[in-house]
Amino acid sequence: MALESMQEIFDRASSGDKEFWQVVLDTDMDEREVTAAESMERMRTTWQAMLDSVDHYQPQRRSVSGLVGGDGEHMRQYAKENESLSGPYLQEVIATALSVGESNACMCKIVAAPTAGACGVLPAVLVPLYKQGGADEETILRALYVASGIGAVIAYRACIAGAAGGCQAEIGSASAMAAGALTAIRSGDNAQIGHAVAMALKNLMGLVCDPVAGLVEVPCVKRNVVGAVNAISCADMALAGVESRIPVDQVIDCMGEVGRRMPVEFRETALGGLAVTPAGLAVKERMQRGEF
């Protein structure tokens, strides 16, 4: 999607008296030569896939390595049986992020948003909100256009792949997309959306990609939780009037530069970070021996 900057979206929204999501919708219509209804139907299909990835979670399943599975259910059981530190919405956000991330590791159907490794972040903040009556489907679909536009800008100006820019490019981008979407849902203006995105990216700046045994499992799944919770806090800060002192496009550019300077060991190669801890290497050796 040819959106080169957040400022471009802001300017097009202002000049056309449109909202952020409408600019992204117009861009999709122009690029794919589809009608608004056709574009919206495709987004609805994406949303349904997100819902399905949550509803079809199977806590008994485990990934091939055995490292991942069941933690989403553990979180839900904990929330039922204990007075958790977080409220009902945040409890389910954490459980959903774990569930969808685990489903990815177990080779189930998910929505890459923007990547498979970060697939749990957007559903984690949107699905519980929707199911708890905090937003109707139309509002969610519009928020997904906001998230898509943000992701498109990050992909153009920086990167969204762990192999190119570390986990900041995957979980960081997903968190920024979710923060912007939540801000839009709560009627935040374009400036507030920009601040939410900037703060979400800044908070995860420099996050390395260090998958144990090269699998998108550890620490990837639990980082989806961090991305989701970060998005919520940044959306709330932006809606409260807290501003990023660095403009959002400059933050995105900075993230791209950090990714380019990041040593190859920290870019999805499993040659650094948690992947080369004694426990991480033991998992790799076990996998190489075929002991699943």
Q: What is the number of helical segments per DSSP (H or I, 4+ residues)?
A: 13
Strand percentage, roughly? under 5%
Q: What is the helix/strand order? A: HHHHHHHHHHHHH
Ends apart, CA distance between termini: 41 Å
- Name the structural class: mainly alpha
How many strand elements? 0
What does the largest sheet look like?
none
The parts where pLDDT drops under 50 for at least 5 residues are none
Q: Helicity level, as a percent range?
A: 55-70%
Cα-based radius of gyration, to the nearest Å:
19 Å
> What integer is the average pLDDT?
97
Q: What global shape is seen?
A: globular
How would you describe this structure in keywords?
globular, 292 residues
Question: How would you characterize this protein structure?
Answer:
The model has no long low-confidence stretch (mean pLDDT 97). The N and C termini lie far apart (41 Å). α9 runs antiparallel to α10 and α10 runs antiparallel to α11. The chain is built from 13 helices and no strands. It is an all-alpha fold and 292 residues long. The longest helix has 21 residues, at 137-157. Helices cover 63% and strands 0% of the residues.
